[in-house]
Amino acid sequence: MTKPIIVANWKMNTLADQARRLVRRIVELSAEQHLDSVGTVVLCPPFVNISIVRSELTDTAIELGGQNCWTEPYGAYTGEVSAEMLRAVGCSYVIVGHSERRTIFGEDDEIVLRKMLRAWEASLIPIVCVGETLHQRQMHQTWDVLRRQLGNIAQHQDRSRAWVCAYEPVWAIGTGIAAEPEQIEQAHLYLRSFLDGHGCSHVPLIYGGSVNANNAAEIFAVPNVDGALVGTASLVAESFVAIIRASHDAHRTTT
Q1: In contact, 170 and 132? CB cutoff 8 Å
Q2: Integer Cα distance of 165 and 244 in angstroms
Q3: pTM for the structure as a whole
Q4: β-strand 227-230 against 205-208: which pairing, if any?
Q5: Residues with a known catalytic role
Q6: Domain limits of the chain?
Q7: pLDDT (mean) for 125-130
Q8: Dihedrals phi, psi of 235, to nearest 5 degrees
Q9: What are 158-207's pLDDT values in tens digits?
Q10: What is the spatial distance between Cα 50 and Cα 251, in angstroms, rounded to a whole number?
Q11: CATH number belonging to domain 5-211+223-254
């Protein structure tokens, strides 16, 4: 296991005071447990709370990320946020291609690729999400879907540019039902082989989909899992820090 990367996606949650209290508690617990020595932790709050969270992360090792960005650096795109704007307010990472962006807002593979390239132009590290729906899995289309979603990205990848690949089976997002370890192992083995075969052996491969404090250790024990993209469980400081702890323990076990 490479050094773990744990990403908190708060989605459309937390008002200003809630965000402040949550990040303060995460910082406090992380310091108490000495969890800043291994790996990377990224917090992705709603856009309106980024500055609040950034102010609380001063003098910590925790990174800041955006939940999304648009494909252009500026212009008449009402309601959108550019990668350059995220960088300007202190972000180092940005999530692109999340299943909710694909399914609710109709973003396709081409849009995801353009967002990834824009993130690179803005000196952000894109966290690129891929994964199949329940119907696609039941129709035995998982590998076809993953190959399609990563195809253009792998062709445009640049070893001088960092990025993260997040496998998030859509049927496990927000359902409370994580994929079984065997299912995660099969998917991550396929993705690791695909990435390595396209010159992306440097790309961390993380899992997202109902990760919580109770199943984190089991998930991190799966081969080729380099971290997690955490949704609901990241909204409670104690559960999120427990996931960070589990990733650190797994890393120490394998190194």
Answers
A1: yes
A2: 18
A3: 0.95
A4: parallel
A5: 98, 168
A6: 5-211+223-254
A7: 97
A8: -85, -5
A9: 777 899 999 999 888 777 777 899 999 999 999 999 999 998 899 999 99
A10: 29
A11: 3.20.20.70
